[in-house]
Description:
The complex is a heterodimer.
Chain A: H1 5-8, H2 10-18, H3 23-58, H4 65-68, H5 84-115, H6 123-140, H7 144-159, H8 164-188, H9 192-200, H10 205-216, H11 218-234, H12 237-240, H13 260-268, H14 273-306
Chain B: H1 3-9, H2 23-27, H3 34-76, E1 86-87, E2 92-93, H4 96-125, H5 131-143, H6 149-175, H7 190-215, H8 218-226, H9 231-242, H10 244-260, H11 263-268, H12 286-293, H13 300-340
Antiparallel strand pairs in B: 1-2
Helix pairs in contact in B: 3-13, 4-5, 4-7, 4-10, 5-7, 7-10, 8-9, 10-13, 12-13
Amino acid sequence: MTATPADSNPEVLAAELKRPLPKGRVLFSTGMSAIAFGLTGLALLPLLAILIEILRQGVPHLKWEVFVSLPAPAGMENTANGFANAILGTLIMVGIASVISIPIGVMTGIFLSELGQGAGGSSPLKAIASAIRFIATILSGVPSIIAGVFAYGVIVLATKQFSAVAGGVALAVLMLPIVTLTTEEALKLVPTSQRLASAALGANRLQTIFRIVVTSALSGITTGVLLAVARAAGETAPLLFTALFSQNWPQGLFNPTPSLSVLIYNYAFSPFVEQNQIAWTASLVLVGLVLLISILSRLVTRRNLMR
Amino acid sequence: MKEPLETARSPSRAGISLFHPSPEAELNITTTSRWDLWLEQGFTWLLCGFALSTVVLLFWISWVIYQQARPAIQEYGLGFLWSQDWDVAGLAFGALPYIYGTLVSSAIALLIAVPVGLAVAIVTSENFLPLAVRSPLGFLVELIAAIPSVIIGLWGLFVLIPVLRPVQQVLYDYFKWTPLFSTEPFGPGLLTAGVILAIMILPTMAAISREVLLAVPQELRSASMSLGATRWETIFSLLLPAGVSGILGAAMLALGRALGETMAVTMVIGNSPYISASLLDAGYTIPALLANEFPEALEGLHIGALMYLALILFAITLLVNIAAVLLVWLIGLQRGMVLNR
């Protein structure tokens, strides 16, 4: 290419560089920015609307009695109305789910991170680990209602009884992949140099894993466990036809058990305004619980990353 | 620190007294006791066993649902997929209205959530705003995912439906000549369900697309801008094409979530088992039907038909999720190749 006079002339070149963008391109840029910010605002709107509505509807009826009394029979006034049984039921079922899923999930996470990769793992273990990682990822995308169908097929049909155990098993299926994958992520953050240092001091693999790696990743593992608990506490679909619901206190592990989320669902469609109000108050309690756990776990991780 | 002592205690060196370990024994680091080896082997197998339980679980779920669905599969065969009856008393079951409702509501959700999610991803990954504003913004959008779906349904029932009604009325008034908006709106319906689903899958879409955009190397952005492209020209001709497989993966994961979402949809879709071309009409989805009918299902064939539907839903979501995971892995591989070059 030959240089045109304009290229060689520094003044013309400078003028060309300083020439403002054509109107069309400016318009396109500002227009797209406006659209992007508009859509982002739109994306935030539902969250704000939901939180405001829960506070507006839930706070007026948030009294001490809702935490200690049973749901009042529909249409009865001047009786203590609450959902203490549902809170207890939710705690029982999340407890059962945690007992099942946390040990298995944490152990699987340790396997994936410590034996399934890096120089230490032999290659068949690596192949097994990547297959398991793949399946855990797939399992975390299984719809929650399918977990309910599974628990229904395994426990409810076998025992011919809706029960807290069935609900707990359904929730455990949902918690397991979350605990597994977050544990693995947490362990991966521990620098390899620490593992090597431990091995150089004469520790075997067992000691390295439990005294060094797991100890330093403990807060990350806690985060994963908390996230899984928060998710399980808010689930409704798997409980609808495994634990069912009851108006009374939970009666043992093999009987229908109430839960906060199913109470909200049942009372949302109630023709009685008091029950709708109780649904909103229960939502406030449930959202408060779940958001508290998620934000707490985020703070734990963030502090960890900064360190 | 304990290791030398353990070695001294090992059976192979039984002759050495524990209380007076000789110096050579303490310094010997080449032998490991058999007990330690066994412990480590056993531990490896134990962990492997725990880990395999995840695999067992996935196959167990498939097996249980298939086993329970078998009576219905034998009775209705593949015709179940395009039959439109649902008569519990007459034991005539067909899945088409539910499959249709599930697919249509999820499609509406994707149509809304993909552009909005991309916008959020772009705003929170590019340097439009200072980092101090950007990261809380991303956090707030992702917070929606933490709200239990039954509460989003409650909000949909009491707040979103009244808000959307006038909008639906306008759509009906002006567009009733198209089949899509040809029925009188009454609040709940496919469109409302799609909007609720869009709200629920938005965090998935936004968070993963954001990761994908952040993974595009900064040098590429600088190169594009130094050639004179504006920010949005860079985004459209460089960032989005570079991240397209990841964004596709994000959309697939979001779709998987939308297909299986139960509570919020059940509460706003109107639960009517008829196929209607109009988006303003009520519909029904597979998860909603499972949620409504499982608690009262007693008849073997009724349970079987519900299990058959669960199997269909499970298969669809499994395929969508596998495709999504593979897509996301693919960009991981590509990135690895770029780094190795």
